[in-house]
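Figure S4 source data
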Amino acid sequence: MDETIRKKIQSLLDEHRIMTLATLRPDGWPQATTVGYVNDGLEIYFLCGLESQKAANLARDDRVSLTIDHDTPDMMAITGLSMAAHATPVVDRAEAEKALRLMPLKYPPQTALPFAMPTPDDVRIFRVTPVVISVLDYSKGFGHSDLVTC
């Protein structure tokens, strides 16, 4: 991966904390949901309820599509990421605890959860492994994206 593109991807991951994640329902229809995420470099983690529809969908098929972006009043200032990826459950306890330790970095104390920080036993934690990343940057032209194969 080109270093300039890698830095752009890293920057976009670092400055955002919400993504739209699409999984595949049992009937084949995509299901898009908004989830918070944390990242350690290019490693992306999100969590969901143990019995959530996302967890059930991913147990059947780990393929996801996702977007990370923000709202801007200037159409030509649109930047963001779009990915095709695999979302696999984190089964290693040390990795799960690492992902949870990253939460306060993206969600500082002033945005505290209305409940205690979950443990790896309370939630399902997924690691997102990109296959293809589209780096959107409309400042380079309407609809401009650079495609990166991982």
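Figure S5 source data
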Amino acid sequence: MVHITVIFFSYAADRMKGRTQEFTVPAGTSVAAFFDQALSPSMGEPAHHFMFSVNAEWVDPSYVLQDGDELAVIPPVSGG
């Protein structure tokens, strides 16, 4: 099992009712699979609408989560 910390930004924090949460996922779980299984129901949007970083580095949703990773979930941003 892999233990991760997830940090939510912008409206993702509102939808998840907090800025950080701890999760335990099976070894070999990708960011996209984790998002689809654990976060998508609350987010109401698919993973491809978000950007992700792990340990302060941008990652592709296919990145495989490692024990102790800090995953940031960043919603799309628009300006005016």
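Residues 31-43 form the longest helix (13 residues). The longest strand covers residues 2-8.
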